[in-house]
Amino acid sequence: MYKNLVNRFIKYAKINTRSDETSKTIPSTQSQVEFAKILMEDLEAIGLEEVEYNEENAFVTATLPANTEREIPTVGFIAHMDTADFNSENVNPQFVEDYDGEDIVLNEEQDIVLSPTDFPNLKNYVSNTLITTDGTTLLGADDKAGIAEIMSAVEYLIHHPEIEHGRVRLAFGPDEEIGVGADRFDVEHFDADFAYTIDGGPVGELQYESFNAAAAKIHIQGKNVHPGTDKEQMVNALTLGMKLNAMLPAEEVPEMTEGREGFFHLNSMNGTVEEAEMSYIIRDHDREKFEERKELLLNAVKELNSDFEEERITINMYDQYYNMREIIEEDMRSVDVAKKAMEELDIEPILEPIRGGTDGSKISFMGLPTPNLFSGGENYHGRYEFIAVESMEAATNVIRKIIELLASPE
Question: Which of 305, 321, 337 delimits the end of a domain?
Fold first, then answer.
């Protein structure tokens, strides 16, 4: 049905578009600019209109015009161009036809195996055609699959003008993996009533609830004195950091939480006796609990500083994004039509909170309700990533069905 879907995905997956958290440019890597140019050419070749690249935010946008005079909501579909912080050079996708449920040797030379013993989710794909890595890179289905699925869905509609549809907007953006891509998204220019990010995992995922998220960067100034003569003189920055971490609830960490349970995550700590740096992320679905978590960390810093005549610990805390449910639940059309689309395609909707965030978390708070739909991939961000061709087709079907349902008479 979608003759270009798989080839389009493979073409895009082979392009290294890894983002760079240390970069100060927009986008963070030049490879994303080059990829944007390729996407623009492909969008124009399909027959889409208003194909544009915004140099201020690095988003590529395009329009599928309505083919009816009836008033139909404008829907948007959004995916990101960058891939995660894992080797993305020389991506070499491999096909496993009619998967038998057993181990898949990704790289015989390096003895890298994708096994259902380690990844029981593989058993869900028996008899499917899988696309995997060669064991040395990620695959990039997050989110090259989303891009390919969106493009294939609108391409199908262009080739089938008998299917009535309203105006559809597309946007492919940068730097989602480093959390800044959507910061400059132009909601007014995008001009949609609601939208979807196609950035979820397995078939059926429909997510409109995300974490509230904050980051904290902590600097600890110690005082190094010879350890043989340091009594009541040395201030060990590393020890202070350990004390700070011990003041947070030991069980409220990612490895001990699930569902709607929030956490503190110490994701880096480095330094010496003289000076140390710590980095935390703070997450909770509940806004009140989220604010309490931030206050707890601030109070811990304040309490430790009170032991000294001068401030030894400084903290820079800032919010990253909020739970998009606060916005989306005010207008549930996007969720309702996506749920109906899946049900009509015999796909069971899986409505679960995201233990993370999407570009939609930020875009929703800009005034455009944007839940997240599955793209079909599994084991994102590493060498064991894979996606089934059948899952990509299912995602493309859902995108199409949403567009068609919006044009259906009530």
Answer: 321
